[in-house]
Structure formats: structure tokens, C-alpha cells
């Protein structure tokens, strides 16, 4: 059997009522004639949207097929034991040309009970933001279930939500239960559990082409919400060039930012997990003993767990990647 190597996948594009064209203009994504492309799923094991390899001798095989064949060699032994052939993470680029609905996701326990699925904890890395653009994260003061329901009933929910003006490089961690929304003019890289369960709380009274408002999930959402108040929701970090900076560590993924202008040698022996690189700036080359692949801004690559040693060589003056593993 031939050795595994860093894998690229064909993006899966999703048209959204709030989508735009930044995925094409800023990231070079070719989403054809979709009028409002809101999401590019870079790496997905979601049923009906399973990513397909685009490079090397495994091109044309999908992610689930690869896990069936390579098992722990691809994802790591512990990961395979826990998730079997289901890939545990979903990687996306999101372009919000309009405000996304205010929403919340259930945790694992609730999602299993209600939907026989995993919950959804996620994080955002802001790739680009128009001047004055804001994310909605959590509440702007102490909150409880009774007050929340009253505000919903009085159509005053926007008055108690927290809004944060953002810029490129900002990081936000969204554990299951935290109310949130991506605002107009923002493009993010999203790392999340493999789950597509969303409870919509508020959608600005928007109507579709047929004059219908989108369904809200008020009753499902209220039990899923974590009403804990934080005075700040942004993740602070300081970059040290040519060295990984940890930004989010949780039970579902471990994400760092690696900014480099010199060749980085990596050895992941003992990690027992795949590693994902999401390129958010510049261009680089990833090479193993017997394989080399170029990666540019807007591209994502999966390093199998059995590929223990590899190099990241910059091809532009500065490169920045998100490095993700379990």
C-alpha cells in the first residue's frame, strides 16, 4: 500500500440567502453561477456533503471511504476508536454579505437526546471584515431564562444581545449554548464539530421570495442556551513568529496559529491525531519524504496521523495558517 500524504479536498459550495462573492474575490473560490455563495465546506464528513480528495493517487475517493480503509493511520487510533468512519470536524469559510440569523447550538447531551447527533461547539477566525462590521456574541449583561423569554415575546431580543466590532485576525470561541450571529460584511474561517444542528432565535423578520418568514426554534433554543454572562468574548493571543500560538483548546479540537517566514519542521509522532492546516495568509509548500504540495490562502490540507514528519516552507514573504488537531 502506498504511503499516505497531505490531502487536499474539493470544496463544497453552499448558496445562502445572506451569502455574497468574497469567497471568489478574496479567496479565489470557483463556485460557478451560484448567486449568493455563503459557505465553502473545505473538509466535511457530514452525510450528503462528504469531501472528496483532489490531489495525488487518492483523488476521487471521499473522506469516509479513506477512513474505512486507513482507519487510525488517517485520523489517529484514539480518534478512530471514538468516531469510527465519521470525521469529527467540519471546516468552512463563511461569507456574510448580510446578517446571519441569531442562533444557538445544543451540546452533545441534548443533541444526542433530541437528534441522535453530536452537539456543535465551534470557533471563528476573522479573515476579513468591512469597517464597522460586528459579530453578535452572548448577552450584553446578566441574563436568565425568564427575562430572555419576556424579551422574545416583546420582540426586544436585540436590546439584550452583545455586539462586537471585529477586524481580521480576531478569534472567537463559541461553545455549545452560546447565542451568536455573524454580522454583515464579515468573512470567517470556522472550525466546528461535525454537526449541522442549529436553533434559530431571531431572523430580523426577513421574508423569502414567497413572503414567508424563516422558521424560528424558540422552544428548542431556550433549553439549549447558556445564560452565563461574560464581560469579554474575544480570545486574546500574541503571535510569536515561526512558533505555534495556541488560541483555542477544548474537548473537540485544539487550534493554534502559526505565522512563519522560515521553513518549519514538524514532528507529530505521539500526537495520535490528524492535523489540519487552513491557510489564511500567503502561500507555502508542505513536503514529506516522498510528496510535496503547494497551498495558498483559502486552501485547507489534511495531514494524516501516520505522516509523522513534514516541512512547511514559505513561498511568500509571510504565511499564516490555522493548525488544528484533536
From TrEMBL:
InterPro entries: Carb_Metab_Reg_Kinase/Isom, Man6P_isomerase_Firm_short, MPI_cupin_dom, PMI_typeI_cat, RmlC-like_jellyroll, RmlC_Cupin_sf. The active site is at residue 200. Residues 245-313 form the Mannose-6-phosphate isomerase cupin domain. Binds 1 zinc ion per subunit. GO terms for molecular function: mannose-6-phosphate isomerase activity; zinc ion binding. It comes from the Bacteria. It holds the Pfam family MPI_cupin_dom. Keywords: Isomerase, Metal-binding, Zinc. One of its GO terms (biological process) is carbohydrate metabolic process. Zn(2+) binds at residues 105, 122, 180. Residues 8-117 form the Phosphomannose isomerase type I catalytic domain. Its cofactor is Zn(2+). PANTHER family: FRUCTOKINASE, TRANSCRIPTIONAL REPRESSOR MPRA. This is Phosphohexomutase. It comes from Mangrovibacterium diazotrophicum.
Amino acid at each position: 500500500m502506498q504511503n499516505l500524504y497531505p490531502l487536499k479536498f474539493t470544496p463544497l459550495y453552499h448558496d445562502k440567502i445572506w451569502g455574497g462573492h468574497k469567497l471568489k474575490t478574496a479567496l479565489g473560490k470557483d463556485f460557478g453561477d451560484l448567486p449568493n455563495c455563503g459557505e465553502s465546506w473545505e473538509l466535511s464528513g457530514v452525510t450528503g456533503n462528504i469531501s472528496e480528495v483532489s490531489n495525488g493517487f487518492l483523488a476521487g475517493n471521499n473522506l469516509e471511504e479513506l477512513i474505512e480503509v486507513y482507519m487510525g493511520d488517517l485520523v489517529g487510533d484514539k480518534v478512530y476508536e471514538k468516531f469510527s468512519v465519521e470525521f469529527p470536524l467540519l471546516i468552512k469559510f463563511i461569507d456574510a454579505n448580510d446578517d446571519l440569523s441569531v442562533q444557538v447550538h445544543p451540546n452533545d447531551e441534548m443533541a444526542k437526546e433530541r437528534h441522535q447527533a453530536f452537539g456543535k461547539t465551534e470557533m471563528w477566525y476573522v479573515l476579513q471584515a468591512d469597517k464597522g462590521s460586528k459579530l453578535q456574541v452572548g448577552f450584553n449583561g446578566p441574563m436568565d431564562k425568564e427575562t430572555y423569554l419576556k424579551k422574545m415575546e416583546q420582540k426586544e431580543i436585540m436590546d439584550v444581545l452583545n455586539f462586537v466590532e471585529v477586524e481580521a485576525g480576531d478569534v472567537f470561541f463559541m461553545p455549545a449554548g452560546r447565542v451568536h450571529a455573524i454580522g454583515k460584511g464579515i468573512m470567517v474561517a470556522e472550525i466546528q464539530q461535525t454537526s449541522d444542528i442549529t436553533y434559530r432565535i431571531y431572523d430580523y423578520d426577513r421574508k423569502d421570495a414567497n413572503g414567508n418568514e424563516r422558521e424560528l426554534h424558540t422552544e428548542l433554543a431556550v433549553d439549549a442556551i447558556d445564560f452565563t454572562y461574560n464581560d469579554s468574548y474575544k480570545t486574546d493571543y500574541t503571535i510569536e513568529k515561526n512558533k505555534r500560538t495556541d488560541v483555542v483548546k477544548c474537548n473537540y479540537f485544539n487550534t493554534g496559529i502559526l505565522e512563519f517566514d522560515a521553513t518549519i519542521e514538524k514532528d507529530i509522532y505521539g500526537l495520535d491525531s490528524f492535523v489540519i492546516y487552513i491557510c489564511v495568509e500567503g502561500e507555502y509548500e508542505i513536503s514529506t519524504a516522498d510528496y510535496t504540495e503547494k497551498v495558498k490562502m483559502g486552501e485547507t490540507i489534511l495531514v494524516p496521523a501516520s505522516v509523522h514528519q513534514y516541512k512547511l516552507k514559505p513561498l511568500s514573504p509571510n504565511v499564516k495558517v490555522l493548525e488544528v488537531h484533536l
